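hey all, quick one before standup. I had two proteins in the batch that finished overnight and I want to keep them in one place so we stop losing track of which output belongs to which input. First protein below, input sequence then structure tokens straight from the run.
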Amino acid sequence: MQGDIGVARSIDKGATWQQLGIALDEDWHLSYPYVFNYLGQIYMMPEGSQKGELCLYRAIDFPLKWELDRIVLKKPLIDSFIIDHDGKYWLFGSDHSSFGRKNGQLEIWYSSSPLGPWKPHKKNPIYNRDRSLGARNGGRPFRYNGDLYRIGQDCGETYGRRVRIFKIEVLSGADYKEVEVPFPFEESSKGRNAWNGARYHHLDVQQLSSGEWVGVMDGDRIPSGDSVHRFLLGCASVAAVAGVIVLLGVLLGAVNCIIPLNWCADYSWKRSDTLLGWERRANVFSSKLRWFCCRVNRVPSFLRGRIKPNTYTGRLVLALIFATGLALSCAGVKFIYGGNGAEEPYSWKGHYSQFTLLTMTYDARLWNLKMYVKHYSRCASVKEIVVVWNKGTPPNLSDLDSAVPVRIRVENRNSLNNRFKMDPLIKTRAVLELDDDIMMTCDDVERGFMVWRQHPDRIVGFYPRFVDGSRLEYRGEKYARMNKGYNMILTGAAFIDSQAAFERYWSEQAKVGREVVDKYFNCEDVLLNFLYANASSYKTVEYVRPAWAIDTSKLSGAAISGNTKEHYKKRSYCLQKFTNIYGSLTGRRWEFDERKDGWDL
């Protein structure tokens, strides 16, 4: 993969970025663009070690037009920077072309000008040590309170696993000394779903004219070389499957020899002239090879003598071998085609965002909640989890294994209306209302969030329903499928606009509906759908089909709606009541598979 140097601009301290274009494109890989100003000219020194030289470019029209100014060094230095210190210019870089420990080598050069010529440091190489100790540069050096700091990469587990900060105490032509200082950067607990779940290896910090500091850090969800590693493991699994197939063939009598018989010394059939010539060669290697082939071909007879397929033990062995082959086949497919294991967020118009996850529960469902928080807190776009605690003694936050902040909102009254209660502490516009007994993949959640960001004025969820006819009756998803359309989305698993949805739900118009919800302890999601439909003549719901979803309440025995028949009866009454108050949904119907993303099949 060949890299180019691109340019993006931010005018809001990095919250959003505008792509401006490609600044530098060469015939070799480019990275690590170190940019600096000298005598009114802007220079860039990118890493281009494949060229075998360290090149310096000068801006003709900053930031998109550059020309080669000079060759800094005839060495393939990587991740290099130049710093002005004590009246000299110092060039730091690593040379991996010579013998030494890759990612554990560091060299220093110095000059009276950043344009050279450069002299090597007396102690070069400064480091040639374990790659986890931060020898390779990890970003622009910076000064703080008069001290100079260098950023290094810890490449112990993989290339660029993390950055480490070093305070430079001595820097002269004859000596160099630095000490590591704490780097107060808390790694995410989201694992590979985090933007830097596998590694973060470059950091650039700058002090603005206002005195504020801004930092830019890169990150990755997969380790270096992960795709090659997975491909090799997949090939190894496929090879193992081939071995299992041969073994099964041997035991079942379908394979009588493993190596062609004409390779064996005791083969007595007619031979070709070429084979006869080969056999006449009196060398030790060919003799040993034929002897080995003969011994290998005795294996089938030996195995069939020990393992008889017609016996109970033989059948058990065959079943185990078959299961092993099946497991290896699945592993091979997963390694080759299954991806890197990260459930990444989806960008909308080049940007990412976050949402608040809100669930409502009580003390009898604590087991569900623990599993729920542990799973969903690892989803990439989840910013916070809000637990609406309706009844009983709430758990301690320390009881919940979460990768994001969790806030438990204890309610004074056990009401389903609490689900949509106004909450000024929620900092995101998007809220995912998700029952604590629903488990689905983070990728499904991220897809739902992506669709909501395209349609923030709608309820975007995973459980469609269809309401029609003069005799209103609540039915499940199967009925919507039969009618090839839907007009309602259950908010037990749906994205909503927290401000708009909560204001509608707690408006004076919705007061009668909230009383119905309290009376039947049901239908709060149905009410919200009617309120959305009443507020707009356009489409108000969007469906996203999950890859799979599990109702964990059936495992814990703490289902809120355990009696399905009674549950549907109450909801049918709600439909009739809400229709009389807010108008009918019957005239609304949206078909499945309307969107181009294919997620609403």
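OK second protein, same deal, sequence then tokens:
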Amino acid sequence: MASNFDTVRGTPPGILLIRSIRGKDWRFSTYRYVVLFLTFVAYASYHASRKPSSIVKSVLYPEPTNKDNGLDLPWFGQVFIKTQYMGNESHHRHRLIDKGWAPFNSKDGTTKLGEIDVAFLACYSLGMYVAGHLGDTLDLRLFLTCGMVGSGVFVALFGMGYFWNIHVFGFYLGMQMVAGLFQATGWPSVVAVIGNWFGKGKRGLIMGIWNAHTSVGNISGSLLAASVLDYGWGWCFIVPGAFIAMAGILVFLFLPAYPEDIGFSSPHGSASSLEAVPADGEANMGKGIQVESETNMSRAGSVTRTGVGLIEACAIPGVIPFALCLFFAKLVAYTFLYWLPFYLSQTEIGGEHVSVKSAGNLSTLFDVGGIVGGILAGYISDKLNARATTAACFMYAAIPAMLLYRRYGSISHNINILLMMVAGLFINGPYALITTAVSADLGTHSSLRGDSRALATVTAIIDGTGSVGAAFGPLLTGFLSTIGWDAVFVMLMVCALIAGLLLSRLVISEISEKTCKPPVSSGRHNFGAPASQPLLSDRR
């Protein structure tokens, strides 16, 4: 009875309602699509709520000479560039553009903006380690819901500083720190949920496509923030905050964290446990009869699982090298995330400046390249069965991509857009691969004997370490930008080189395995080895 009670506790109320209306349950493959969709929306909303701070930087610390002077752009560039500051602008907009917003409009304004970013990311990275362990021990659905609603509240409170006319630096610092702690609940949870539902076959490609939520979230956050910027910069935070809170309610209602929570067995169990619910199970569920599992363990649900400690998770082969690589890879990616709109508004492109709003819209094209990069990296790593080699090659390719963008991006808007998208492809590709497919592979490593209970913890270690680097990137940029943007790009290229070098041992191992050893036919797999089970098919 206890096992059945736990399972009922783990079943989302929205699914219970759908079952009662339909009279029968969904197929296993249908649930997989639902999980993909809900986790995609969930983490897209996380990233959308992080983007406003980059959009409003040039409003809080303004550059009065920025303006649009009639841009000669290709058709896709014109979608993202609009003339903004014309003669009929309101008084408060004119005041903000000229004077900025205290305390960020002083000479050390960029430093304060960098400190805001590092405060958020420091709390985010520290909270990640705790959140990962909690995610492996608590109900992932409830844990994720609380994190999303809490994030929405504190992101919106940051924006309320505009309406409450608050000019105290500590207020904005505190809101960002608390928001960072809530944001830490997101990534370990969504990766753990995906890992719980999917085997390793084509995981790189599927998770590469799924990881487009990062760029989709960045794009939607930029467009949402830029669309309401005319009404006051506070709305740039309130609207994305409401978006993530509503997405959190959707997760609470419909997201099944584990297959066991709704009557299916885990794809990571033993061979006998991989059998799906019998064909008549669908009918039995429709009649309200609980289908009994062969063992209590496979039906206990998320609320009865025990977690893996940080030390045990760190001992999994590959965790430390990928975590250190992500430290530098995420430093580069998040520097573009937080500072690219500011860079575009402060830099002459084709002899002209773009407005704050146009810079925010234009920066989304970097994430368009990132979507392609994430999918391409996942596909290549699946074909080669070489995660480390793929990630390292992308990081090395990012170095000339950034160099070309800095050197030739100012020639014209067309060239800037093209080089920005190429840079986004190579920068976000390995970042997406490591935080998704690699984390899921390592979280279900053979040393864990097929138990997926380490997924959130391993994801937290890798992404938490990466987030420490993400915190340093914007902070260093705040200081180095006062010297010149060339110094910023040199720093980014050096970090990309280090990220690739940190994977050298794993790259050599993968190459040696392919060139010197015959393929292994036994049932034991390396962390990157694909399983035979298809991802989106019924297990019958």
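Flagging for whoever picks this up: Residues 1-9, 64-97, 270-304, 520-540 have pLDDT under 50 and may be disordered. The longest helix spans residues 413-443.
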